[in-house]
Design brief:
With 283 residues, the chain is an alpha/beta fold. It folds into two domains: 7-42 and 250-266, no CATH class; 55-248, Rossmann fold (3-Layer(aba) Sandwich). The chain is built from 13 helices and eight strands. α4 packs parallel to α7. The longest helix has 17 residues, at 125-141. The two termini are 18 Å apart.
Length: 283
């Protein structure tokens, strides 16, 4: 890192938080703007876009179940069954808000599980614990008939589901306690969904200027506030989110930024005779 012409991070927060620890002292100074390039990854816009595909209706009939029978907007969650992803935050916000329930249904994507109530045993124990808590919350609120679980196993099928739900003015939610970048919400935004995302981490940079609604993932009331705001102002947030992705978060934009960085680095004077020091992490 000391000899690099540039150090690439996905966000400014990653730069300052990941490379501030003493481990990097002497090799890199996070305040040195000339040494860092913030180049975010991008969305595969050949898959994630708003253009209707032949397979969309097939996905609706094959995978979406109760979604296909409803014309209401949805709040959709699609992330790993990991405590850090805080799916429970969205579920708790949904069951606690009659206003959201009157406005929308909830869809939770769990890859490889068709019926979470009967197939939970196929999951690893750590994921079972997360899902078990979610199911208990749903049962306790007696809202099983307002929540759909979707077994979506490919990016193509996920993009189709996003497009179908976007036509119903739906909202994608990611309320991780911390999210280093946040590729999932920009994929959803590229398909036309409005986005509600954690304010902790990368999404706070991605969804600036009302391109999405940022929420405190530790505050159920704030998550509910954000979901309702996005549902009520769907057109605003969907359009701005889609525009934000098109402007900055495509692989074409990523490639262009890397090429520019490489051009600058190749033009710098090289220091002759430098050798890589022996690496010693004993301290």
């Amino acid at each position: 890192m000391e000899r690099a012409s540039a150090i690439v991070t996905s966000t400014g927060q990653e730069r300052f938080e990941q490379y501030s620890p003493a481990l990097y002292a002497g090799a890199v100074n996070v305040t040195d703007d000339a040494r860092f390039a913030v180049i975010p990854p991008g969305v595969n816009t050949r898959v994630f876009n708003t253009e209707a595909k032949k397979g969309d209706e097939e996905v609706r009939d094959r995978l979406l179940g109760g979604v296909a029978a409803s014309e209401q907007p949805y709040v959709i969650v699609s992330s790993r069954l990991d405590v850090k992803k805080n799916i429970a935050g969205v579920v708790n916000a949904f069951v606690s808000s009659r206003a959201i329930q009157d406005h929308a249904r909830l869809a939770v994507v769990i890859r490889g599980v068709e019926d979470p109530y009967t197939d939970i045993s196929v999951l690893p124990e750590s994921e079972r614990e997360v899902l078990r808590s979610i199911l208990e919350t749903i049962e306790g609120a007696q809202l099983r008939n307002r929540i759909d679980f979707l077994d979506i196993r490919s990016q193509q099928d996920l993009a189709s589901a996003y497009r179908i739900l976007a036509r119903r003015r739906s909202v994608f939610a990611l309320t991780s306690f911390y999210e280093p970048f946040g590729l999932a919400p920009i994929e959803a935004a590229a398909c036309g969904l409005a986005v509600v995302a954690t304010r902790n981490g990368g999404p706070s940079e991605i969804f600036v200027d009302e391109a999405g609604v940022l929420v405190d993932p530790t505050d159920i009331e704030d998550i509910a506030r954000g979901l309702l705001e996005a549902l009520e102002d769907y057109e605003l947030y969907a359009a701005r989110g889609r525009g934000r992705v098109a402007d900055k978060y495509t692989w074409r934009a990523t490639a262009a930024s890397y090429l520019e960085m490489i051009k600058r680095g190749a033009g710098q004077a090289q220091q002759p005779g430098l050798s890589v020091p022996e690496l010693d992490c004993s301290e």
